[in-house]
Write a structure and sequence with these properties.
Strand order of the largest sheet of chain A: 4-11-10-9-8-5-6-7
Distance between the termini of chain A: 18 Å
Structural class of chain A: alpha/beta
Oligomer: homodimer
Number of strands of chain A: 15
Shape of chain A: globular
Mean pLDDT of chain A: 96
Largest sheet of chain A: 8 strands, mixed
Largest interface: A-B, 52 and 51 residues
Amino acid sequence: MKEYSLLSAEERKAEYARTRAEYEAVRAKGLDLDMSRGKPGKEQLDLVSGIFQRMLTPEEYLSDGEDVRNYGELAGLPAARRLFADLLDCKPEQVFVGGNASLQLMYDTITKAYSHGLLHSPRPWHQEGMLRWLCPVPGYDRHFRITADYGFEMIQIPMTPDGPDMDAVEEAVRDPSVKGIWCVPKYSNPDGIIYSEETIRRLAFLSPAAPDFTIMWDNAYCIHEFEGDYVPFPDMLSLCAEYGNPDMVIEFASTSKITLPGAGVSCFACSEANMAYLKRLLSIQAISFDKVNQQRHVLYLKDKAHTLELMQKHAAILAPKFHCVLEMLDREIAPLGIAQWQKPKGGYFISVNAMPGTARRTLKLCQDAGVTMTPAGATFPYGLDPHNSNIRVAPTYPSLEELSQAAEIFCLCLRLSALEKLGV
Amino acid sequence: MKEYSLLSAEERKAEYARTRAEYEAVRAKGLDLDMSRGKPGKEQLDLVSGIFQRMLTPEEYLSDGEDVRNYGELAGLPAARRLFADLLDCKPEQVFVGGNASLQLMYDTITKAYSHGLLHSPRPWHQEGMLRWLCPVPGYDRHFRITADYGFEMIQIPMTPDGPDMDAVEEAVRDPSVKGIWCVPKYSNPDGIIYSEETIRRLAFLSPAAPDFTIMWDNAYCIHEFEGDYVPFPDMLSLCAEYGNPDMVIEFASTSKITLPGAGVSCFACSEANMAYLKRLLSIQAISFDKVNQQRHVLYLKDKAHTLELMQKHAAILAPKFHCVLEMLDREIAPLGIAQWQKPKGGYFISVNAMPGTARRTLKLCQDAGVTMTPAGATFPYGLDPHNSNIRVAPTYPSLEELSQAAEIFCLCLRLSALEKLGV
């Protein structure tokens, strides 16, 4: 197969006709496949059903002497705080264990900043004339929707293979209206990149003009390798403290992709000073989070070593799915020179950069053939990808058989849209 | 025993000496008793341990064909929405089933009004020059803390045996800066009063100056009779709609005192128009709440009839506790004419109005004798009871034996503080 850019107009026409015929054939099957969201598949849910079978005995109603079934312990069961501290390599007293979703904790943090301000805020953010926020792109649509919802002007920071472009970040934080940055530092959403040590150190070493500049450190995939061993990762809380910025970072994590999406346990981790400040605000809204579910997780996951064993079982399910898509892209698309992609070893996504100007069309073709994908542009603030190129592929939810069909269709659509763009 | 106000100075001195001696005798025991919060006792928690034993089978991972273990259904499992609609006598599509605490949903509603405004808000509330809120007193301290946290000027509305003084409410809502009212309409916290039908109709019929005036209808004790049969209660959503105010009320409820405090399921209920508006805002902060726990509750509680049977079992535990305190008050305090109290048939509290000016002193004496009570003033906005009189007694958490001791001490303290006030 030749690179499409080298094809003559004649050859392109022929290739388009062949590809279109293949596409129409699969379209006729009336498939209904979903590669849109980072959802674990059924096999993964079944994998952790032990958390249902292995239920609390009366002795286990107590945790550190406290009845997990009653009100109390706003910051979470001490044992749950220890578990997350173990996973994140921070201290238990830096951990607040919340409800079923880290997204809620992140939303809540921005909300509190908006209504009340954060620890070092001169005033609540709603009283600031202008609010700006740094968004590494491509990034996570749900992050961007939060800052969009609060009226931030979102500034795009290009992602590099080492993480956000730190020259751009260092320049941007000189503006006092820039209040923070979204980061998924390990297996970034969607690129699957691990921030380099240098990137992380430069982030921890930032000197932002805003005294309440906040790094929203969404460590969603902290132990989520699907290929190879667990990759140790620096504790951002220690690093920020080391560089004199102890209160500049708030870290988030959850068990949504360890146990159950939507029925797991989430946490945030931060400096002790931030913890005292945030706990005071949180005490207005909650008496306590679901400590029974926290206890289930403590009993089921035990500690980091045991949790990593479970992650290897998830990996055994996930790796073939990622390989299926990556191998199909390598085989069907790489020779054509019409798209680039990362080859992640963890996380939940494959980020494909289609030929500029073709992402939207590609996904329209996918949809028409029964394959739902994350909408084009979703990985950019306001849903607007300036190059109309980035496509987030979420290979985790479909079965391997479905995935194989969906990936095949996706490749056909990449080809059709590229040929259309080149002219047919 | 004579009324204290009729005692001579001599008699008061003698009575004080006797009472003080009794008090010092119990104080010497070094007790540690808690009547401070509306927490279910251990016996109640054990009562519902079936929710742990009766776990999900693989067939039960599905609810209405949907896997409860994965993301989705922001507004909650349809079956959970039906269950709460059954309990509250409203429609399933009016119900949003959330996480573990209705307090969070209430906080979240005020937060969203503050940051974004409600359905009929001309602007977000943080842009209003002045915010006022109606607080029936005595009331629930955690309600008042929410509106205090957002800077509302809180206007006290006296409670009557029929609910809030509606003349005062109707007058107050003519001020456009008055944005809402806290209500616990059934077994109000702390009075244990059921709002009369007339009060409820007048509330539903209000014509507030603020287009976004909101009745925060915290139906926390909707099925929480501890004496007698379930008392049917009007559906406030229908009533408000009937009077042309369909969007004026948001109702809240939870299973915190049906299954487990802090590990139950909460909901709000509102008009379909409010639901559409709030769901849009909620979709930014959450993908879904814990549907596994919702499913546990659906399977365990089944429907209203079955849930009411469970509530009768709670009642069998609670009634003796309430009677213990009420009988002690009747016997020890009523003849002295130094306090008044309601005799609730449901809810979680007994509201005692001590001799004006003595609440704080009474509770200091209790504390010194090892009995923790809700702080004086907690039932008023800003924690300030203008008469220093109201005391919230929470008899549910201690065992009956502990409660009997605690109530005895409480009565001694009421007597001592009254005598001190009268002069000894």
